[in-house]
Design goal:
Blueprint lengths: L1 H16 L8 E2 L2 H8 L2 E7 L2 E7 L4 E6 L5 E8 L4 E6 L3 E9 L4 E4 L6 E8 L6
Antiparallel strand pairs: 1-7, 2-3, 2-9, 3-4, 4-5, 5-6, 6-7, 7-8, 8-9
Amino acid sequence: MYRLAFAVMIGLSALLQSPAGGHADEKLTAAEIQTLLEDRTALGNWRGTETRQYFEASGATVYLEKGGAPDEGKWKVDAAKNQYCSWWRRGGWACYDVETDGTTYYWVTPGDDYRSPFTMTDGRQMGF
């Protein structure tokens, strides 16, 4: 009985020490973000919609939602804040933290802390 109570206390203690939402993800550095994205495609899910985004080494990017039309923009890495930043005609520049749990990456939206999951693939892979 004491072992069970001790195990439950240890588990609760670990959960309470985890960041909000119970995840303990690692924030990528600017160099890691650059290497992760350059000349690669993010395969993601933005608020329930499948997405693709290709990141050219030149700083150009193309974003596509499943069933939608491609949108062209720009991307860069903010070395001072260790963030990915993108520019779109409809909204200008916005920056995001990039985190990983070891298998999946996440764009972390400032303000509401929304975590959008994605994986990476080499080259330009815009098809669904």
